[in-house]
Every structure is written in C-alpha cells, then in structure tokens.
Write a structure and sequence with these properties.
This protein has 307 residues and is mostly beta strands. The chain is built from four helices and 13 strands. The chain has helices spanning 52-56, 110-129, 211-214, 217-220; strands at residues 20-23, 132-143, 148-159, 163-170, 172-179, 182-186, 194-199, 221-231, 234-243, 249-257, 263-270, 275-285, 303-306. It is globular and about 60 Å long.
Length: 307
C-alpha cells in the first residue's frame, strides 16, 4: 500500500492512510495490503497553509516500484530512510522536476482564464472563512505502472489552526491525528506495532485542508475552466490547474461548488501518471468540534517513530 508519514502537504496524505491495493483486473478481496516500513520517513513538513508553494514541494513523485514501499516481510529500514510517493513526502531540499506552464492552454480564451481566476479567488475567500470542517471522504488511487488501484473512506475533521483528524472506516481503524502538538499516523490495518509521530511545529503549526492547493492559486497555477459536473448532488465548476513551478504533481483538478465555492473534490496526476482523487461529502462547516476528538494515545506495545 502506498504510504506516507508526511503532513507537509495535507491533502497528499489522504491516500497514504489506508485502503487496499488491488489489480485493476481482479477483485480487491484476498489482496494483502502492503505493510508500511518500520521507519519514520524523512519528512519535509512545511506549513500547509502559509507559503503553499513551499508546502507543495514537500511531496515527491513516485519513487521506485510500488511507490518505494517494501513488500510485507522486507527488512526494517532506519527512520532516516524513505521513498514514499505523492500523498507522500520528499526529502527536505529535494528539487522536484519543474513544470512548464506560463500561459493558458491552447484554445483557452482570455475570458475563460478570467473566469477561472475569479472562481479561484472566491474559493480562496471561502477557505479563509472556514474555521472548522467535518465531512465524509472517499478516495481512490490508480497506479497505471502497476495496474493497481486503491480505495478508502472515512470521516474527516478539521479545526483551525492545528487540529485535524482522519478516521478511516475502510480500512477500519487507520487514523491520522493532529492534536495541536504532534501529527500521529497509525495504520493497524497493516501493522499494529508502529506509530509515526511528527512535530506540528516543523510544519509551521497550521493545518488547512481546503487551502492546501488553492492558497495563492492564481499565482501558482495556470488555470483552465472545464465543463462543470455534479459532485455529491452539488453543481460544480471544474478547473484544471497546471503548476507554474516545481511541484510534486503534474496536474491538479478541483471541483468547486457553484453556490458556496467549497472545494468538493480534488484529483492529482503525478509524474508517474498515477491519479489520486479525494471527494468530500456531507460537508459541515463552522460547527463545534471538541478537543478530545483530536487526542491520540499510542496503543500498548506499539513503537513510536519520531520524524
């Protein structure tokens, strides 16, 4: 299974937590998920909100076969070693391959570009107004090179500036928590004996899902407005965003609610052509979310690996 211990790009971590991989030509059942390494990948936990360009470079493209994650039974590596891809972390200071995009794509009119820029502006304003967010999520990953796919689902909670929780129901028990001091990642679906912990201070202390990609988006991307789609019963603007500078992904697509400008779906195409999609459903914003929801205690016998 493709894994990550990085919180540098929050959204990229979504596919890192849980979900069985299966051949695109065969059912998922009976396919054993990959075991995360007993390592704490070298993390670049830049702030996901402020300095979104810096945060984006915290994730890398795919590394090696199967995303650089060893097969079950592989020898444990030291905490300094890593190779996890996209919804994954890059080595600090690593230089992703720059993307070339400095003007609208062919066939895109100036009016269309202006429309896309206005949608992004309103989307960013909407994200700024969200203090808390609660939603169901579903996600999928397609890896053409391996002819594999991965699916997972669960519940997501966010409370600015530094609380975050992803509680997986598929596979049940996997969890990712930001408690105000640490990011905790625990994947009992593949290994009940290890927990990965990272200081939130390394990431600037801020957690903001919606702004992971839309912060300063007009300056960071060449945006194209596409035909709208219905996502979870909501009419949306569909935009394709091509990074202007170095990025862990080639193309980002977002689906923005036409009524309230909330991002309801994200999709990333990585350098190795893997496509990762996350959809938020039943979104509720600015409600009360208690502190105890974001607490995490490592289970007895589990080893904690600090990044």
């Amino acid at each position: 299974m493709i894994r990550s211990a990085s919180f540098g790009v929050l959204l990229l971590t979504l596919a890192a937590c849980g979900g069985q991989e299966s051949s695109a030509d065969s059912p998922a059942q009976g396919v054993a998920p990959q075991r995360p390494r007993a390592e704490s990948p070298a993390v670049a936990a830049e702030a996901p909100v402020a300095g979104a360009d810096t945060a984006a470079t915290a994730a890398s493209g795919a590394a090696g076969h199967n995303g650089g994650v060893p097969q079950p039974g592989a020898p444990a590596a030291t905490p300094a070693q890593t190779g996890a891809p996209a919804m994954a972390a890059a080595q600090p200071g690593a230089a992703p391959t720059p993307q070339t995009a400095s003007k609208p794509t062919s066939g895109q009119s100036a009016a269309s570009a202006a429309d896309a820029a206005e949608i992004l502006r309103r989307t960013e304003q909407r994200a700024d107004a969200i203090r808390t967010l609660e939603a169901d999520f579903v996600q999928s990953v397609r890896v053409p090179l391996l002819n594999q796919s991965q699916n997972s689902a669960g519940k997501l909670y966010q409370r600015k500036p530094d609380r975050f929780l992803m509680r997986f129901t598929q596979p049940a028990g996997d969890v990712m928590v930001a408690d105000g001091r640490y990011f905790w990642l625990y994947y009992p679906s593949t290994d009940r004996t290890q927990v990965i912990r990272t200081s939130i201070a390394k990431g600037g202390g801020a957690v903001d899902l919606q702004r992971q990609f839309i912060g300063n988006a007009a300056a960071r991307f060449v945006a194209t407005l596409n035909r709208g789609e219905v996502v979870d019963g909501h009419d949306t603007h569909a935009l394709t965003l091509v990074p202007r500078q170095a990025s862990p992904y080639k193309v980002l697509r977002i689906w923005v609610d036409k009524d309230d400008y909330t991002v309801r779906r994200f999709e990333m195409t990585e350098e190795n052509e893997s496509v990762r999609r996350v959809e938020l459903r039943n979104i509720r914003v600015n409600g009360t979310i208690p502190d105890n929801l974001f607490s995490f205690t490592p289970p007895p016998g589990a080893q904690v690996f600090d990044q």
